[in-house]
């Protein structure tokens, strides 16, 4: 009954994704309430601003004195690659000061999608909202791998770095939950750009099946903060750890490459435009038309006929 087992597994994954989306909705509502409370506090005087300034200075001092540490596992190319069944390609952690290594090329006919994201970048959120379904189809059909490179380039780098560190923690401790976590962050962006608290980032991880104490501790301790800074600097300076691209470096987010070709849309929120670009980059033998799943009875009949 392997096909019945596959169908059950798909149902389980769909249920987990639905649960994660509901959890995200609840967390967004909590975030809005906290933002409202914070606004009231800020209107009460400058005391909160002074405390925040002291906190920022303390973080900057801490980050400047932290020794270099190994990067997260499964991100030796400064990104994590997700393939069929949302299983991540495993790699050792990148050693301090080491040069990121591009992953081997995909098999013929399997498209390589590379995306550099800042989790507070509105355009990154718009791209994900528009193309999450297409990216999922590409992975589920075995038509593509998707490699995500979290960086922090926005002015509010503390919040961006905190989110990228959380993504790196999931990549390191629960890599097969990374795709859902990445999607959840990008489609649940706080509207004011302040970012999420560590508690919220931990809650997000738990909602996609990465709720271990190891993930939580990694997020709250900022274990991969120095790696995020280094990976961001490498992405902006170039060269990119990707074979077969003419793009020298990242100049903004999202930076999206399909088989090394840069996606420069007229409308980043148009899913059709991205689908057409994938088709063009992949070649004429490639298709984005999902085939309907056969009903359970039809599957069994087909198997009997084969026997």
Q: What does this 3D model show about the protein?
A:
The protein has helices at 2-43, 47-65, 122-140, 157-173, 178-186, 198-207, 213-221, 225-237, 271-282, 296-306, and strands at 80-82, 111-117, 144-150, 255-258, 261-262. The chain is globular, with a radius of gyration of 21 Å. With 307 residues, the protein is α+β, with helices and mostly antiparallel strands.
Structure at a glance:
The protein has helices at residues 2-43, 47-65, 122-140, 157-173, 178-186, 198-207, 213-221, 225-237, 271-282, 296-306, and strands spanning 80-82, 111-117, 144-150, 255-258, 261-262. It is an alpha+beta fold.
What is the topological layout?
Elements: H1 2-43, H2 47-65, E1 80-82, E2 111-117, H3 122-140, E3 144-150, H4 157-173, H5 178-186, H6 198-207, H7 213-221, H8 225-237, E4 255-258, E5 261-262, H9 271-282, H10 296-306
Parallel strand pairs: 2-3
Antiparallel strand pairs: 1-3, 2-4, 4-5
Helix pairs in contact: 1-6, 4-5, 4-6, 4-7, 4-8, 6-7
Which tags fit this structure?
52% helix, 307 residues, globular, 5 strands, alpha+beta
Helix content range: 40-55%
Main pleated-sheet profile: 5 strands, mixed
Low-confidence stretches: 35-67, 290-307
Distance between the termini: 14 Å
Give the structural class: alpha+beta
Compute the number of helices.
10
As a whole number of angstroms, the C-alpha radius of gyration is 21 Å
Give the strand line-up of the largest sheet: 1-3-2-4-5
Order of helices and strands: HHEEHEHHHHHEEHH
**How many beta-strand segments?**
5
Strand content: 5-15%
Structural shape: globular
The whole-number mean of residue pLDDT values reads: 81
